[in-house]
Design brief:
- It is built from three helices and five strands, in the order E-H-E-E-H-E-H-E.
- A five-stranded antiparallel β-sheet has the order 4-1-3-2-5, covered by helices on one side.
- The protein has helices spanning about 10-20, 50-55, 70-80, and strands at about 1-10, 30-35, 45-50, 65-70, 80-85.
- The chain has one domain (about 1-85): Alpha-Beta Plaits.
- It is of the alpha+beta class and about 90 residues long.
Length: about 90
């Protein structure tokens, strides 16, 4: 299952740390985004494939992230975010 995860910048350190322990698929959340597509970064994005059991593990970080099964482009459009090209 392909998952798109979005995390606000203010929670990124905590979410990255927790993700190291909940899944073999470490979630680096390294794609920066903002409403304008310019700095400062307001959100971080990760797109990855997960098994059903791996998806269930993501509930551990759910309180600090939004998890979507729709395409990354659609998620960005719905959240009014653009990738920041550094």
């Amino acid at each position: 299952m392909r998952i798109t995860i979005v995390c606000e910048d203010k929670w990124i350190v905590e979410v990255r740390e927790k993700s190291k322990y909940i899944s073999k698929n470490h979630l680096p959340l390294t794609i920066p985004a903002s409403p304008s597509g310019e700095l400062p970064v307001t959100h971080w994005i990760c797109v990855s494939d997960f098994s059903l059991s791996g998806f269930k593990e993501l509930i551990e970080i759910k309180k600090r992230t939004e998890i979507y099964t729709s395409s990354p482009k659609r998620v960005l459009r719905e959240l009014n975010l653009k990738i920041i090209k550094l």
